[in-house]
Amino acid sequence: MAKHIIRRLFPNYQTVREHKSLRFLGTLLHDPNLWHLNRHSVAGGFAVGLFMAFLPMPFQMVLAAMVAIAVRVNLPIAVALVWLSNPLTMPPIFFFAYKLGSLIVGIPSHGMPAFNLSLEWFGGEFLRVWKPLLVGSLLLSTVSALLGYIGMQLFWRLNVVHRWEQRRKRRLTARK
How far apart are alpha carbons 110 and 43 in whole angstroms? Predict the structure, then answer.
């Protein structure tokens, strides 16, 4: 059931592989594991996407795609999950990461300073918050990736067992 929904939502892999703006990748997109919907590939895609989603850096989708290709997990899922951190969710995610990092590093947190794109801000405030933000983001990314991987493996396994049980019950009722 979930496979059919995912197949409808994501683009056809042939279309993506043959897209003219992606031709520079050559045969990298020809690996079947990047497109298959099996337990390991999907769980790996979840882990990669969740890990990249909570890192405070630009081009998260590109990096998620590169990592998904390198470790041969589901590419569309890895790229799609990066959008958990979007312009609406980034402030609370990074504020939580900063608070968590401050707690771990032992630096007192006075609240996240207001962002101002200037040399003064990078010289003052950024130097004060970069370490707790990075530590908190790495911890949040790692924990979410692990939970996403384990959760998807468990969900997939439970779904398969449930379908086996349904099939067994149908066969038993058909014999009667």
Answer: 37
Beta-carbon neighbour count of residue 60 at 10 Å? 21
Cα separation, 161 vs 44, in Å, equals 21
pLDDT digits (tens, 9 = 90+) for 89-113: 888 888 888 889 988 888 876 655 5
Q: Which residues contact 34 (CB under 8 A, 6 or more apart)?
A: 13, 41, 68, 69, 72, 73, 74, 75
83 touches 49 (CB < 8 A): no
Cα torsion angle, 147, 149, 151, 154, sign: negative
Estimate to the nearest angstrom the gap between the alpha carbon of 60 and the chain centroid: 10
The answer to whether 137 and 94 have CB atoms below 8 angstroms apart is yes
Q: pLDDT tens-digit profile of 17-34? A: 565 555 556 656 667 677
Tokens representing residue 144 in the block: 């979410």
